[in-house]
Specification:
Helix content is 62%, strand content 5%. It is mainly α. The strands form three sheets. It has a two-stranded antiparallel sheet with strand order 1-2. Strands 3-4 form a two-stranded parallel ribbon. A two-stranded antiparallel sheet has the order 5-6.
Length: 442
């Protein structure tokens, strides 16, 4: 993910320095565990903890896989990142270095460290979701009773409030958070079980010790790797959360259309909306988030394909994960932070919402008139056709629906003026909303 679209906290998690820090910690804990069970000298584990260091430039040099960066003369590239890391660490150790990486395989280190990186990322994303939740909740409370038109199929339906619309968003945010908490636990696992997962050359007590120290759950059964259904589920959750952000952003884009203009993105002094048209104010952040959600979905597919590996492992998942895992976490972090900023600064045009409510001359209350007639004994389909005829006239000829209804003797013969007035009272549409608001603390 390019630096422009990333925040430093999440980016730091996926920098090589942090990965190598976690690799080293796992290696040192393995040595400590081996000392605990008497397989290596305790003094060796202590000296490893005191002296072990790595040099990133040296690791890159030894691996020899960086494009445009050839190994120095006499250095034979290892073409293996963890072995290059181990060589670098051993150069900082004395005789105790012979106990480094004893009885284990590369992915005992890499997958256990990956569990830490994903947990760190999930923790940041959970904090991001809390930030989004707080921003939406604040605006929902502010506009709890701000009336606006509800729309289905992009056509006026019945009145709602902007606070109610935001309550629907809150539900999706809270569900996303619960899913992410579960996905976090599923990927926060470790394995120190050897080349095919059978503990042939390492005592299972080592795995218990390492995972306990790192706060990870030991994988109940692993091959050379932790099984990738965990990571696919995690990225699937990230894609769903991004899909919710896309839903919210799409709604903002529709409400910001010139013909609607019920909300507007913040537009700062000196900001330009177009190189050609000085009047333009475009929903650029919402559009950006919509596009990024598409990219997020693309990361979930290769994660699903990574589930299938040959036998006890192959290398097909590795190259993919080096791209999709950092990028997906960094991207969603950016999306959530930007969306929180967007919601906080969103301009809500309550006057425009009220004006748009009046566009159809009361037609949005057609169901109330139909139901009132039905309660008076009209057969429902007859009531429907009677009201629909006036709606059609209002829709096609520009007549006022309310006036047509009040002038119809069939309707006024069944409903008193007070009963008809009640059909056009927007309070009816709000009377049960408090039930919804209480569920979200609005």
């Amino acid at each position: 993910m390019i630096e422009r679209y990333s925040y430093p906290e999440m980016r730091a998690i996926w920098e090589p320095a942090n990965k190598f820090v976690q690799w080293l910690e796992v290696e040192l804990l393995v040595a400590e565990a081996l000392a605990e069970i008497g397989e290596i000298p305790a003094d060796a584990a202590r000296r490893m903890r005191e002296n072990a260091r790595f040099d990133i430039d040296r690791i890159i040099e030894l691996e020899g896989e960086t494009p445009g960066r050839e190994p120095p003369p006499g250095v034979k590239p290892l073409r293996h990142d963890l072995l290059a890391f181990l060589h670098s660490v051993r150069e900082s150790l004395g005789d105790e270095g012979k106990y480094l990486h004893l009885g284990i395989t590369s992915y005992d280190i890499e997958d256990t460290a990956l569990g830490i990186l994903l947990r760190q990322s999930a923790d940041l994303l959970l904090a991001d979701l809390d930030r989004v939740h707080d921003a939406v909740l604040a605006r929902a409370r502010e506009h709890k009773w701000t009336l606006m038109m509800g729309r289905t199929h992009a056509v006026h339906a019945e009145p709602i409030t902007f606070g109610f619309k935001l309550a629907v968003w809150l539900g999706a945010i809270e569900r996303g958070r619960r899913r992410l908490e579960h996905a976090r636990d599923e990927v926060a696992v470790g394995k120190i079980s050897g080349a095919v997962g059978t503990y042939a050359n390492i005592d299972p007590r080592v795995e218990q010790y390492v995972c306990a120290k790192l706060g990870l759950t030991p994988a109940p059964a692993s091959t050379q790797i932790v099984q990738r259904d965990r990571h696919a589920a995690y990225l699937g959750v990230l894609a769903v959360i991004a899909g919710s952000i896309e839903q919210f952003a799409t709604e903002i884009r529709h409400l910001a259309r010139t013909e609607v203009r019920e909300v507007e993105e913040p537009f700062e002094e000196g900001q330009r909306g177009s190189s050609a048209m000085p009047h333009k104010r475009n929903p650029i952040v919402a559009e950006r988030l919509t596009g990024m959600a598409r990219l997020m979905r693309s990361y979930s597919l290769p994660a699903l394909e990574n589930i299938a590996t040959w036998h006890e492992r192959d290398l097909s998942n590795s190259s993919v994960e080096r791209i999709i895992l950092p990028d997906a976490n960094i991207l969603l972090d950016y999306m959530l932070r930007k969306f929180a900023e967007l919601v906080t600064g969103l301009r809500v045009n309550a006057d425009r919402m009220e004006r748009n409510l009046d566009l159809l001359g009361g037609m949005e209350c057609s169901q109330q008139v139909m139901l009132a007639l039905t309660r008076k004994g009209f057969e429902r389909d007859h009531a429907y056709q009677l009201v629909q005829a006036h709606a059609r006239c209002a829709w096609e000829q520009g007549a006022n629906f309310r006036e047509l209804v009040f002038a119809d003797p069939q309707i006024t013969g069944a409903l008193s003026r007070e009963e008809l007035e009640a059909c056009f009272d927007y309070q009816r549409h709000q009377r049960h909303l408090e039930t919804v608001f209480e569920r979200f603390g609005i």
